[in-house]
Amino acid sequence: MASRSSTSTWLVLFVGLLAIFLAPSSASAAEIKTNPTEHGFRLPLPNGVTGAESLAFDTRGKGPYVGVSDGRVLRWGGSAVGWTTFAHHEDYRRIPLCTVPVAPSHETESICGRPLGLAFHRQSGDLYIADAYKGLLRIGSDGGEADVLATGVDGVPFRFVNGIDVDQATSDVYFTDSSLTYPRRFNTEIMMNADVTGRLLKYEARTKQVIVLKDGLPYPNGVAVSHDRTYVVVAHTVPCQAHRYYLQGAKYELMANLSGYPDNVRRDGKGGYWVALNQEKARPDMASMGPVKHLVGVRLDGNGVQVEELTAAKGVTLSEVSERSGRLWLGSVELDYIGLV
Ligand SMILES: *[C@@H]1O[C@H](CO)[C@@H](O)[C@H](O)[C@H]1NC(C)=O
């Protein structure tokens, strides 16, 4: 792991490399550009925590803010400040085993919280948090103990709150509850048992009510409000697809078949979307092909056509690809660092 002083050296080196990576590509629409991430910069998380599943930058461009395995949202304050605690659920401070880790995080996460989705509301500076166990939370720009906005809808408690995005014009918040049956800790059961009890939800800013937009969904995960704010992209981890939910008319339509199991979705800088992949799809021809590229992310254009892919070393999986000023910040559930390419 890099120390903080070497971190800044790497950053300088890295900016140099970026110029190469981001050089205009002459690829035609039919070619898919491949962007390897192995040589990117690594920003280590504090000792003992993993899982920057989601990343967000505040209205002043500070951050990233990341949700980690012990239930906290951390903020990166630059190499001189490092990571500080920004927000948490009230139980994090109230329950001793959350702050003095005595058990692996997967055994305590239902008690301490597990922030999986982060999205800022630019006008207010508030950060909305999709916490797998604690529900829909919100915290002001000073941080601290997050307010719980909702823990269920229509009398049905949330089970596995996951992806989130804010419509900056209406202040409405879109989020997913991945399953009514299985909590995050048992997420592999969703796939094994072909669970289709996930929901796409909306927290309406005006009424402060949660509304079910679509239920009976297979493993809905990441969400992103479209560039023109006419639809919301929803990633379904199984069956490896992205859908669009049209805000007018409520039509739910297949947008893309994906080459892996998607996690979070974010708008890119070109009218499309970055979709992070937890795992590539097994292909029948894999054995005969020898080692295949290890895919960790894809960029879709606005029509759902895959135009770029990200690859990484074996063992690396991504939960989010967040584009900022032409750079890609990479979050992962399992890793103890975040990446930057
Ligand atoms: C996705 O795959 C299905 C069949 O596997 C196909 O019918 C459909 O047209 C594909 N859709 C897109 C948007 O690629």
Automatic annotation (TrEMBL):
Q: What are the GO cellular component annotations?
A: vacuole
Primary location recorded for the protein, binned into one broad class: other
Q: Annotated Gene Ontology MF terms?
A: hydrolase activity
Q: Locate the Strictosidine synthase conserved region domain: which residues?
A: 162-249
Q: Where is the signal peptide?
A: 1-29
The chain's coiled-coil residues are none
**Pfam families, per database record:** Str_synth (PF03088)
Intracellular or extracellular location(s) = Vacuole
Q: Which UniProt keywords apply?
A: Glycoprotein, Signal, Vacuole
Family membership: Belongs to the strictosidine synthase family.
| Protein name per Swiss-Prot or TrEMBL | Strictosidine synthase conserved region domain-containing protein
Q: Give the species.
A: Brachypodium distachyon
